[in-house]
Amino acid sequence: xxxxxxxxxxxxxxxxxxxxxxxxxxxxxxxxxxxxxxxxxxxxxxxxxxxxxxxxxxxxxxxxxxxxxxxxxxxxxxxxxxxxxxxxxxxxxxxxxxxxxxxxxxxxxxxxxxxxxxxxxxxxxxxxxxxxxxxxxxxxxxxxxxxxxxxxxxxxxxxxxxxxxxxxxxxxxxxxxxxxxxxxxxxxxxxxxxxxxxxxxxxxxxxxxxxxxxxxxxxxxxxxxxxxxxxxxxxxxxxxxxxxxxxxxxxxxxxxxxxxxxxxxxxxxxxxxxxxxxxxxxxxxxxxxxxxxxxxxxxxxxxxxxxxxxxxxxxxxxxxx
Length: 321
Description:
The chain has 321 residues and is α/β, with parallel strands linked by helices.
C-alpha cells in the first residue's frame, strides 16, 4: 500500500474538503501533518512516503528514497526552481506538479478586472463616491479609454497568461508575451525573454506574471521601467521581488506612467506606513488574485484528478519536472 504524506492547508472550515480528501484515499496510507509542523517525526514520515501533497520542504524531499510524485498546493514553485533540485528530482524519477489549474482562472479574471477597471476609470469613480461625492462626469469620460488596439505585453506565458489571452481576445487587443522557452505553438506572438527590451517600449499594458527566482529578481528594474511609453500601465500578479518598487514609485509620482495595479508586493503583508499605499495611481489588492470561495475544494479535486492519472500511468496535469 502506498503512503501519501500531506501538509496541505484545507482552510478554516476544512471538514468538507478533508472528508472529500479522506474518502477518496481508502487504498492509501495517509499521513496528515500541520503545515507548520517541521518536527523530526514529520520529516521522517515524508522521507518514507511515496506521494507528497501540500508544501513540503525541498530539503526534506531530497532526503527521501521512496518519493515518486510531489504535488504542490500552489501555482508557484520558487523553492523548487533551482538547478540542483531539478536535477536531483529528475535523476530520482520524482515528478513535481503544481496547482496552476486551480489558480489560472481566478488570476486571469483578476487581471482582466484590473485592466478593464482602470480603462473605465472605476477606481477614480469609487474615490469620488467614498470621498467628496462630487460628480466628475466630464473628467472621467475624458480619461476613459477603449482597449481595442492597445498592446498587452505579458512577462511569462504559463497557465495564467494563456487563460488571460482567451479573456482579452474579444477586446481586440494586440497580445504579445515573452518566455524562457518559446516552442512556436503558442496562440499569440511569443518571443524569447532575451528580447524583452525591444518590446517593453511598445506596450500599453505590462502584465508581470514572472515567478520568483534569481533570474527574475528586479526584472522590471529602473532602466526597464524608464523605457516604457508615457501613459503605460504596469500590473504585477507574479511575485513582488520581480519589480523594483522604488523605481515604480518614481515613475508614478512623475506622472509618466498612468498607473500600476499590484496584487503582490515586497514585503507581504505590506506595512501600513509603506509608501506604496499613498503613491498616486498605485492600486493594491492584498495578494488576493488567486482567491475564490471554493479554492480549497478545487485544490483537493486537482490533486485527486492527478492521483487517478498517476495510478493509470497517464501524464500528470501541471507537471513542472
